[in-house]
Amino acid sequence: MTRLAGSGLFTDHVVYERPGRWTFAGGVRGEVVLDAGTVHTRWPDREPLSAPYGGRPAGALREAFAAAPLPAWNAYGWIAFEFASARPSGRLAHLVVPRVEVRVEDGEARVSGTDPRDVERVADLLAADVPSRTAAPSPVDVRQGGDAYRARVARAVGDIAAGRYQKVIVSRRVDVPYPVDVAATYARGRAANTPARSFLLDLGGFQATGFSPEVLASVDEDGRVMTQPLAGTRAFGSGGDADARTRKELETDPKEIFEHAVSVRTSQEELYRVCDPDSVHVTGFMTVKERGSVQHLGSSVGGVLAPGRTCWDALDALFPGVTASGIPKAGAIEAIGGLEERRGLYAGAVVAVSHTGALDSALVLRALYNEDGRAWLRAGAGIVSGSTPDREYEETCEKLSSISPYVVPLA
């Protein structure tokens, strides 16, 4: 995947990993870009079109893809956190239908595309005996900006005590002080992480790579929906007794248990809106998930879409992830707008969606972002009434350590 992404064959590309399957989507056959109030579409043999839209952004995406002049398609891309804002601004989504797809399963690569020349070039690249790149990383110092972050956590705890909301995720940005090689960072970071999903993308000059700990929404062709809220965090990776000790802390800490339980309850309530209520269920409640440098409490919440509902409805109901926004969501999203600068892709989603009605999306955390020669990391912590600024700051450091040691400078 890194070889394909770094080959220069396709300026725009997306790599998306699910358990047992890797996909590379290269080039642009069709494109849907969503800005606040405007949807831009580009399809084969049609003039590019920009048009205003009303209603919810998910509805604009659904209508844009419903009008695609293609008998079959798969699309890949990203959705910004502000997609869910009551007053959205900036770019909200960017998805492409690729010219070429490479799927790797069980050690075998399958290449498909609309242009035989693209397919041949990709096949030649896959067959070439090219040694793997082993560029050395330059770890990023994540222990910066602590005082400002602690002050924002204290402010959020005060808002919770005043009854403005129950929980809010407060995040902080860490700038990378050098140009980065995003593809090489993906290769280094993926070798050291155990994500639920991973991704590497370059669309319109915006690059990102990450190791998502959490499935935001997964919908299969039969309408079965699954989301995987993770909440409650402790460090992981110190080995033996240290990891066992932090695991026990995680499983017995009242603050962490409360944070997880209310997140699961919220996910259930969201699925009730779009699923047959009798089908909504929780499995694997509060099991520990090991994700790189941290471990979380995790559960799976599932259901079956109600008649007339689609994968876009499921995404709309679950977005943004409760574990990256807060409770209640509307109040938490509004609070985040006052506590932080625009998030963009952080706490948004990377999405793979198909004409069949299937959709898979990963919550964007543990990621590196790069645009206009500047790169940055970002991490947050869930703030509830029992939160302390020092502990929440340490949690952001633990999460940032899933990617900060693996950032590779641009040669």
TrEMBL record:
The protein's required cofactors: Mg(2+)
Database matches in InterPro entries: ADC_synthase, Anth_synth_I-like, Chorismate_C, Salicylate_synthase
Domain Chorismate-utilising enzyme C-terminal: 147-399
Keywords carried by this UniProt record: Lyase, Magnesium, Metal-binding
A Pfam family this chain is assigned to: Chorismate_bind
Origin superkingdom: Bacteria
Protein name, as recorded: Salicylate synthase
Organism from which the protein derives: Actinomadura nitritigenes
